[in-house]
Specification:
The protein is built from nine helices and eight strands. The protein is of the alpha/beta class. The chain has a domain of about 100 residues: P-loop containing nucleotide triphosphate hydrolases (Rossmann fold, 3-Layer(aba) Sandwich), CATH 3.40.50.300. The strands form two sheets. A five-stranded parallel β-sheet has the order 2-3-1-4-8, with helices on both faces. It has a three-stranded antiparallel β-sheet with strand order 6-5-7. Strand 5 and strand 6 form a beta hairpin. Helix 1 crosses helix 9, helix 4 packs parallel to helix 5 and helix 6 packs across helix 7. The radius of gyration is 16 Å and the shape is globular. The protein starts with a strand and ends with a helix. The model has no long low-confidence stretch (mean pLDDT about 95). Bound molecules: BIS(adenosine)-5'-pentaphosphate.
């Protein structure tokens, strides 16, 4: 199964993607995670992407599309994937169509997660991430299970640099201007489910699963 999840920063795309991957035995393809890996390892891509990410802007389409051409072919996605964070512009969506056609794949469902902006700021300030396996937590709504330790056993759980309030506000503006037009884009193609993301995370998950089956 191949899924795409779209929503503003902090809507719960990563959280729901992790749960959907476990349920459907597919792999998460999260462009933000891949970019952060490249920034941390100071690769050429990471050096080019770093300043855009730190200021809450989108990394240029050309860099992202080239990155995805290499990524989507990896064997780990052969059984299916959930795209989290890509596409984010109409140009990226057009490029995805070409890539999918080239590799004989289709999208089975496009999930749109809707959460009001005022909730986003609260979610972002409490978000924590495991440095080892990238699992996402929230200090109140979804705390790490074992006294600050991730379920993978690692205790190095950190807060992202771009989760500062002013950067989150910028990311929300960027979403409204550049990514939200994708909702109409995919509506016109069908296979879309609009899900209220402003709900308990297990309830959100159930609604997504029901919309898929
Ligand atoms: P990216 O990493 O993709 O960030 P994002 O889209 O802004 O999304 P987030 O990861 O911030 O949020 P999320 O929706 O996954 O929410 P989460 O599940 O963590 O991108 C970062 C940057 O990389 C971009 O700004 C850009 O610069 C660059 N980039 C990436 N892809 C790109 C592309 N294609 N083109 C160009 N540039 C690109 O949840 C948030 C918090 O809320 C967590 O703490 C979670 O525990 C909690 N939570 C989740 N669900 C619930 C719930 N139902 N109730 C209560 N709390 C909840």
């Amino acid at each position: 199964m191949n899924l795409l999840i779209i929503g503003p920063p902090g809507a719960g795309k990563g959280t729901q993607s992790e749960m959907l991957c476990e349920k459907y035995n597919i792999s998460q393809l999260a462009t933000g995670d891949i970019l952060r890996f490249n920034v941390k390892n100071e690769t050429e891509l990471g050096l080019q992407a770093k300043s855009y990410m730190a200021s809450g802007k989108l990394v240029p389409d050309e860099l992202i599309i080239n990155m995805m051409k290499d990524e989507i072919l990896k064997p780990v996605y052969a059984n299916g994937f959930i795209l989290d964070g890509f596409p984010r512009t109409i140009a990226q969506a057009d490029a995805l169509n070409i890539l999918l056609e080239e590799f004989g794949k289709t999208l089975d469902k496009v999930i749109i997660l809707k959460v009001p902006n005022e909730k986003i700021i609260e979610r972002m300030s409490g978000r924590r991430i495991c440095r080892s396996c990238n699992r996402t937590y929230h200090i109140i709504y979804n705390p790490p299970p074992m006294d600050g330790e991730c379920s993978c056993g690692n205790s190095d759980i950190y807060q992202r640099d771009d989760d500062k309030e002013e950067t989150v506000i910028k990311r929300l503006e960027v979403y409204d201007a550049q990514t939200s037009p994708l909702v109409e884009y995919y509506k016109s193609k069908g296979k879309i489910s609009e899900i209220n993301g402003d709900n308990d995370l297990n309830a959100v998950f159930l609604n997504i699963v029901n919309s898929i089956s």
